[in-house]
Amino acid sequence: MTEPTAAPDSTDSTAIAAASPASAAADSTIACDLFCAVIDNFGDIGVCWRLARQLASEHGWQVRLFVDDLHAFRKLCPALDTARATQTVEGVFVEHWHEPAHAGETLRIADVVIEAFACELPPVYVAAMAERASKPVWLNLEYLSAEDWIADFHLRPSPHPRYALAKHFFFPGLGPGTGGVIKERTLDAARAEFESSPEARAAWWQRATGGPPPAAEATVISLFAYENPAIDGLLAQWRDSATPIVLLVPEGRISGALARFFGVPAFTAPVRAERGSLRAHALAFTEQRGYDPLLWASDLNFVRGEDSFVRAQWAGKPFVWHIYPQADEAHLPKLDAALAHYDRTLPEAPRAALERFWHAWNGRGTPDWTEFAAHLPAYTARAQAWRDELAQVGDLAANLAEFAKSQLK
Ligand code: TRH
């Protein structure tokens, strides 16, 4: 990508926009601007960073990623310099976005413009999009939902009220007819390599916990979650478990509950604590790629939000989802929609136990570990089958690239 050299000139957006040859998109490198406003936590930038890298590395696109919160971004990508207005990281040109008015160092309109999660594009940028000789493909990348209705709305155009522009809604989803979810081409091979290599596994445990992998009879659980009132009861059940439990907890919003349970000042790496059958390790928050091996190393993964929820499905291990809570419990139908996909083929008893456990983890009832754990073999088999089913929907980046190219023709 040609890096910007001039300051933006909002008075002459037409000339600059027109200077970007739309025809280049059809036969050479596609330029893509991806706008990300971080609402909270890491999911917004987590999804955008993954998508940006993938469009650049797998599809050869020139990606410019606008991000308003470089500090959140740096947690996932320590190579990022939070002091810089612009920089290139892993083949992606990153702009510190002072949304909503700022449109980058240079006002230049890409062939494909993605606004993530309905963030508002700079008005000057939209005006320049309308002036462009050949209109860019404009996509609103929505949040992931497993609900059925999204297949009807996926890729629907929405005309702009003032400009001759249409924006298409791109809906990630778990079922046919949706945009799918992100899956890098190399992911399965990386997982298979980790799983087949006792050395890789041992090295991971040494790095993450300072010790060797636990004995085979232990159940290894990763715990990535928001604050959750159900955790205290669950920790007590793990403490009293008949078999050993090894809990791996990346530092974050649930760490305070662990500190209270173990009576330590803070549950941050490299703290390790034991009570009864439960041994818990605080893990440092890793660079984004470092999260997958944690899922692969565990027998059960507690995940949250959007991106970790997807990674858990690709890991092919049983998982429990702490969905991002919304006002008026609007998240509960989404939780059930995901369950409906995931537990569809389970026999009645494990299915009911799974639903009870997921509901309890999301504020409806009390988690019953003994009941849930009795079905772990069934959940493990189902997780592997579900991974294959989900792969049929296709990778989100590939689906998005294919649609964009069809529009640029
Ligand atoms: O952080 P999240 O809760 O993110 C969100 C946001 O709240 C967002 O506003 C909301 O809309 C969305 O959820 C639904 O959970 P998520 O999506 O799983 O993102 C976490 C990211 O952090 C993911 O990309 C994995 C990454 N991660 C690391 O890079 N290193 C780590 O050690 C861990 C534990 C996670």
Summarize the structure.
This protein is of the alpha/beta class. The protein contains 17 helices and 14 strands. Mean pLDDT is 93; it is low at 1-27.
Q: How are the secondary structure elements laid out?
A:
Elements: H1 13-18, H2 23-27, E1 31-36, H3 43-59, E2 62-67, H4 70-76, E3 86-89, E4 92-96, E5 112-116, H5 123-131, E6 137-141, H6 150-153, E7 157-159, E8 166-170, H7 187-196, H8 198-209, E9 219-223, H9 231-239, E10 245-250, H10 255-262, E11 272-275, E12 278-283, H11 291-297, E13 300-304, H12 307-315, E14 319-322, H13 331-342, H14 348-361, H15 369-374, H16 376-391, H17 396-408
Parallel strand pairs: 1-2, 1-5, 2-4, 5-6, 6-8, 9-10, 9-13, 10-12, 13-14
Antiparallel strand pairs: 3-4, 7-8, 11-12
The protein binds 2'-deoxy-thymidine-beta-L-rhamnose (TRH).
3D architecture notes:
Keywords: Elongation factor, Glycosyltransferase, Protein biosynthesis, Transferase. It comes from Paraburkholderia acidisoli. This is Protein-arginine rhamnosyltransferase. The chain is of the alpha/beta class and 409 residues long. It folds into 2 domains: 23-181 and 394-408, Rossmann fold, CATH 3.40.50; 187-391, Rossmann fold (3-Layer(aba) Sandwich), CATH 3.40.50. Helix content is 40%, strand content 17%. The chain contains 17 helices and 14 strands. It has helices spanning 13-18, 23-27, 43-59, 70-76, 123-131, 150-153, 187-196, 198-209, 231-239, 255-262, 291-297, 307-315, 331-342, 348-361, 369-374, 376-391, 396-408; strands at 31-36, 62-67, 86-89, 92-96, 112-116, 137-141, 157-159, 166-170, 219-223, 245-250, 272-275, 278-283, 300-304, 319-322. An 8-stranded mixed β-sheet has the order 3-4-2-1-5-6-8-7, covered by helices on one side. A 6-stranded mixed β-sheet has the order 11-12-10-9-13-14. Helix 3 (43-59) packs across helix 17 and helix 11 crosses helix 12. It is globular, with a radius of gyration of 23 Å. The model is unreliable at 1-27 (pLDDT under 50). The structure holds 2'-deoxy-thymidine-beta-L-rhamnose. 2'-deoxy-thymidine-beta-L-rhamnose binds at residues 39-44, 46, 76, 143, 224, 250, 285-286, 288, 291, 304-308, 324.
